[in-house]
Amino acid sequence: MHKRMAMLAFIILVVAWGIPSAKAACSTPVVNASFGSVTSFAVNSTASTSSGSLSVNCGSSLATIFNTDTISVRLTASTFASGTQAIMKKVGDSSGDNIPITVCLSVQNCGSPMTIGAPATTFNSTQLSIFLLTGGKNFTIPLFFSTQPGQTVAAGTYTTTLSFLTNWDICTGLGVGIGGIQICVIDQNGSATLSLTVTLEVTNDCTTILAPAVNFGTAPLLSSFSSVVQTISVTCTKGSVYTVGLNDGIHAVNGVRNMASGSNLIRYDIYQSTTNNRWGSSIASQRWSSTNATSVSTNQLIRNYNYTATLLSGQTTPVEGNYSDTITVDLSF
User: Fold this and answer.
1) Where does the record place the Spore coat protein U/FanG domain (predicted)?
2) What is the helix (H) or strand (E) element at residue 2, kind and residue range?
3) Which of 33, 60, 211, 303 has the least CB density, counted as fewest CB within 10 Å?
4) Strand, coil or helix: 18
5) What is the mean pLDDT of residues 264-285?
């Protein structure tokens, strides 16, 4: 019995001595994650998902009787963070806009997301078997990412680079057991900090235009009607730059707005704020820029545009009736 054990040990040493070139450094490729393009309002209301991966590729493997492979992964840093929470921001932006992300290792919708500085997650040989690629000892561990809703942000490219400290101990050949002791002759072990970039493109969008009807009221003479001051409110992406236009209505004649009752017309017009600047659509100078809105909400989503609607002078009072027109409000980025 002792002779057999000695002979087996001798064979193992000879084989190990005979193939020193079988051990080579494991490579650690990374697949970055992208959420694609999402509107700012979708960022606020709905979680977006994406995925990437970390790999430990140790090449071909000789036959093993046992397997003691382990890989551990720990999130150590994020380019942008709030405490231990990884967040995405626009590079160089000082506005404070950010989008927190949830990081799940190997399992989507995990119950315990990774946080910066938390203890490493270690996968044993049984767990690693589901990440093992065909042929050799090459493992790809998936990472799943989701945004956290509730953020009011401006458009732009949001990103962060996550750092994962990865340790591995992989037996790539001649794993045997001797008297209950497991021995790996060709052992690959090492560590590396892997950098994975997560990106989201937030796009401009508008959701609401509030334009109450204009009512001049009732009077016997055109000269008795007063101007009407009202507000159009537009809800668009925070910080977005756009213009608001009003067309000439459905009864316009030679570019002059009219209210109609049958074939009878009353000329009127609409001006920006209390100025004499006509609010139009087809002429660029008559469009109203969001940068010059009358007022802006605290969250910078709603911009208000106060205007004055007035009947044009020099008209003869037409026959009595209900006069109306329909104006279209349009937005252009």
Assistant:
1) 21-162, 193-329
2) helix 2-18
3) 60
4) helix
5) 97
